[in-house]
Specification:
mainly alpha, three-stranded antiparallel sheet, globular
């Protein structure tokens, strides 16, 4: 990946991936490996080292929750669910994307 592509990924695509994760989580619980594979299938070079901190920030912001299951093995898959705050953020961002998309079509 070129330096310019890495900059674009860091500055813009990560934000779009967060929106995609929120959108997917609004329909069903999401987990890291499935999101990672989905992004890779779309041609994005994403590593677990980039994705899992992104999930952690989204949990920290209150957009997702990862219910703690004391019976779950430490390496077992963690499922993330959208919160009410995450739904509000998704609705706000969806409206903003619609406005931006209309401007870009001019």
């Amino acid at each position: 990946m070129s330096t310019q592509s890495a900059d674009i990924q860091r500055e813009f695509l990560w934000a779009l991936w967060k929106i995609q994760i929120l959108n997917d989580a609004a329909e069903r619980p999401v987990f890291g490996l499935a999101v990672l594979q989905d992004l890779r299938n779309r041609g994005y070079d994403v590593s677990p080292g980039a994705l899992y901190p992104l999930f952690a920030r989204m949990v920290e912001y209150g957009w997702l929750v990862c219910p703690d299951d004391p019976t779950r093995h430490a390496r077992a898959r963690k499922e993330y669910r959208i919160t009410d705050r995450g739904r509000e953020v998704l609705a706000e961002l969806s409206a903003e994307i619609e406005r931006l998309s209309a401007l870009l079509r001019r």
